[in-house]
Structure formats: structure tokens, C-alpha cells
Amino acid sequence: MSRSSDKVLLGAHKANLEHFSDGFPSVDSVSDSEEPVDLTEDSATLKLLLGGMHKQKLPTLSGLGSKQLLALAEAGEKYFVYGVMAVCSERIRAESRMVKDEATAATYFAYAAKFGYLEVADAVAPFMIPFDVDTMYGRLKGYDVAFLAWMRYREQYFAISDILTRNYTVPELFNVLGFVPCSSWALYLNGIRKKLPMSVKGYLQLIGANFDRLEWIFDDLQDLLKECTCERCSSAACRWKEKWKQASLNIKPFSSFV
After folding, report:
1. What's the rounded Cα separation, in Å, for the pair 68 and 39?
2. Closest to 9 measured CA to CA, from 59, 52, 46, 63
3. What is the predicted pLDDT for the residue at 105?
4. How far apart are CA 244 and CA 196, in angstroms?
5. pTM
């Protein structure tokens, strides 16, 4: 007999616990007792977990929210219930490709980093870019390899923010020594700078999950170059955009740093 964290008593066959998992004591190593064993998981999680330790189809996970799914997945990993581990990891892998918010991404990332599901970690890692070091250290405490890998992965985005904030010389973007661009360039440059963030964290939030908003900023201000009289400003704007786009294409996945 076991007792959940919310004080619900749950029964389970010892033979099933031994046969379907490697995280519970063997039948021969425990004696019958009326005293329940306290477990840290809640009753909803344990019912699903125990349901996966019978000769039957595994319980459906389609109705579970991300919080309950993660709780079951972690319980499966903790007690080595391999069937539950498999169905949970597959469900999380599928959902990780559709994540749109940082909170869900953070829970999936911590799970994936802890238990070695690198495909999941790669899918949600871009959402982790705006998180500060202390927050990520807390989420990955005890998993130093994953934490260091995240820091190295994140450095790639700092490099892109440098491309956006750097004061380029005229020759670097116009490819002409001694050239003085027309007034349209200053207008365009100031327009871009006004729309870009004023802080490092702001840049990480802008370019973390994807680069769509950054691309929109550059494209939206392209009209400022319509009055260009030197016929070079549009090419210079394209070179600036190409620098950060190329850097974004060269970003290595999180798993390459593990």
C-alpha cells in the first residue's frame, strides 16, 4: 500500500511493480506491512503511473496538460517504469515542436536536460535565451553539464546582439572607401536603432524564440530608403541584415554543446 503526497491510499501488486519497473523493491526483499509507504507524487500522477504497470494498453495521455504530463514523465523516470517513460517522452517530443510560451518551454527543457532527451531540449532551447543565469542554475541544479551547455549555447545569441549594436563604419557596409552616404542612410539607421531594444535582455527576448520580429523591424523601415540619392543605401541595409541572418543560420543546437 502506498500513500500519495495528497494523502490518498493506493494499492498495487508487488509482482507488477517488480515486473514493469526497476525502481521499486523486488517481491522477495519486502515484507507485508499495514503501514503505507509515503511517496512524493500526487494521487493523479500515481494512478496514471500504476496504470502503466499492467499487461494492458498504456493509459492515454491526450487529455493531460503539460504540468500533469511532466509530473508523470518525471515519475516514470524516477521509478524506471519504461513503458511510461517511452510514451511520455514521445508525447513531450511531439509537443515541444509546437511550444509557444516560455513557461512551458522551461519545464520541457529542464526535463529534457535532466534525462537526456536532447531532441526535446533542442526544440525548446531558443525559448531559454532570455532567462538569466541564476534562474537557469536553479532549474538545472545538480546537472552541471546541462547548465554549462546552456551557457555556451546562449553565447551564440550574444554574438548576434553584437552585430545589431555595433557601430559599423561606412566602408564595412558600403564596401567603398571614402564614400559619404546620402541623408537616407542616417534616417534608416536611426529608425532601426529606435526600434531595437535598449538592453541586453531586451535583445535576447527579441531574438530568442525566433527572428521574425527582428526581420520585421528591418523590412518595415525599408521604405525610408526610397528617397536614396546615392543608390547605395539599400545595398548597405541588405549587407547589415545579411550579417545577422547568416549568424542566425550558423547557430548550433543545444545538443552540440553537451
Report:
1. 16
2. 46
3. 92
4. 14
5. 0.81
* Distance in angstroms (rounded) separating the CA atoms of residues 97 and 229: 46
- Express each pLDDT in 178-219 by its tens digit: 889 999 999 999 999 999 998 888 999 999 888 999 999 999
Report the DSSP beta bridge partners of residue 2: 10, 37
List of residues 6+ apart from 37 with CB closer than 8 A: 1, 2, 3
What type of residue sits at position 143?
Answer: Y
- 97 touches 123 (CB < 8 A): yes
Q: For the domain 2-96, what is the CATH code?
A: 3.30.710
Separation CA 53–CA 17 (nearest Å): 7
The greatest distance separating any two alpha carbons of the chain, rounded to the nearest whole angstrom, comes to 90
Looking at residue 217, its amino acid is I
> Angle at the Cα of 223 (from 210 to 246), degrees rounded to 5?
35
Which residue in this structure is represented by grid cell 525502481?
A: 23
φ, ψ of residue 182 to 5 degrees: the values are -75, 180
Give CA–CA dist 96/175, Å, rounded: 43
